[in-house]
Amino acid sequence: MKTGKSLHTFSTFRNFLSRIFNKEFLIFLFFLVLSGGFWLIMTLNETYEREFSIPLRLTGMPRNVVITSDPDSVVRFTVRDKGYMLAFYGLDDTFHPIYIDYQHHNDGRSRGDISVTDIQRQIYPQLSKSSKITSVKGGKFSFSFNFGRHKKVPVRLLGTVTPGDNYYLARVDFIPDSVQVYAARNVLDSIQTVYTMRQHITNFTDVKELTVDLRKFTNAKCIPSKVKMKLYPDVLTEESVEVPIEAINMPDDKVMRTFPSKIRVNFVVGAYRMRSMPKNAETKELLPVGFRVVVNYKEVEENSSEKCHVYVLTSPNGVRNVRTAVNTVDYLIEQR
User: Fold this and answer.
1) Which end of the chain has fewer surrounding CB within 10 Å, N or C?
2) The CATH number of the domain where 206 resides is what?
């Protein structure tokens, strides 16, 4: 039963194919292909315009010359010709790079210019005699250079870096931390810092390492043009320290005493920074080094209040949200 069913299916399929590939269909298919071929020939024989690109290379630089601003590495141009020639130009590796000789295109001081005519003169040998370049797209066909003048400039971060909750950015390291900048004297004098390309990094809690590009300068070149950046997040903790109160703007013949003579200062600091802050060798209590809390005699003299305000004048690097436990204290002014 199964064999008979299979033979019936095969016979049905064969009859179906014979109906499709009959003589009339093959004739129709032949003329369809023929008309398509004629259409393609007529189309390719029409005149069109098409844009192409060709690599540009600057050659012949002496060893003591540093190119501080390169011309565009690609030239874009439009060609007019028959369709079949444009189709041929569209094949891979049709155009070879054009080479511009530094010696013939520099002013001997700091600048070089490549004319569109020179570019076209090097492209035409790669084109058919029937082809015509109708335009060369506007690009940067000039370059600047110097004879090795440079200086070392520090690298700095540009952008926003926000670690995860309860963390802050403890420090940023660059490897290398400085780069060599090559430029003419007047340009070098204006460059004091090299910044990274703008960064926007958020929500990280471990040390983050990445390679970043440096911002480019007009007519200047950074070597290297990329640096490795390491971001160190740190956990924020609430800490406090007892700080002596100091009177400022006091006359020479008077002494101002506060009650209490010390005040507790609260602040937020990263755990890593906290470990490096000075502490009492015996008690391990935090020392008030870098903190300065003051009362202002001139303010007391003008207001004649029973209490005076206390102010945090300075605090160590790396601490934040610095505030005193109380805002006012009692005082006593004595004559010397």
Assistant:
1) N
2) 2.170.120.40
d(CA 102, CA 111): 10
Show the domain range for 76.
Answer: 47-146
Question: Count of domains in the chain?
Answer: 4
- Average pLDDT of the residues of the chain: 87
Pair 281, 325 in one domain: yes
**Per residue in 275-284, pLDDT tens?**
889 999 888 8
CATH of the domain at 85: 2.170.120.30
Shared-domain flag, residues 54 and 128: yes
Question: Are both 181 and 214 inside the same structural domain?
Answer: yes
Taking the alpha carbons of 10, 16, 18, 20 in that order, is the dihedral positive or negative? negative
pLDDT tens digit sequence for 7-20: 556 566 566 556 55
Residue 252 has pLDDT above 60, yes or no: yes
Q: Residue by residue, what is the 3-state secondary structure of the chain?
A: CHHHHHHHHHHHHHHHHHHHCCHHHHHHHHHHHHHHHHHHHHHHCCEEEEEEEEEEEEECCCCCCEEEECCCCEEEEEEEEEHHHHHHHCCCCCCCCEEEEHHHCECCCCEEECCHHHHHHHHHHHCCCCCEEEEECCCCCEEEEECCCEEEEEEECCEEEECCCCEEEEEEEEECCEEEEEECHHHHHHCCCEEECCEEEECCCCCEEEEEEECCECCEEEECCEEEEEEEEEEEEEEEEEEEEEEECCCCCEEEEEECCEEEEEEEEEHHHHHHCCECCCCCCECCCCCEEEEEHHHHHHHCCCEEECEEEECCCCEEEEEECCCEEEEEEEEC
307, 239: one domain: yes
Q: CA 39 to CA 90: how far, in whole Å?
A: 20
Q: Within 13 A of 68's CA, how many CA atoms are on the CB side?
A: 26
Same structural domain, 117 and 162: no
| Tokens matching residue 255 | 């002494």
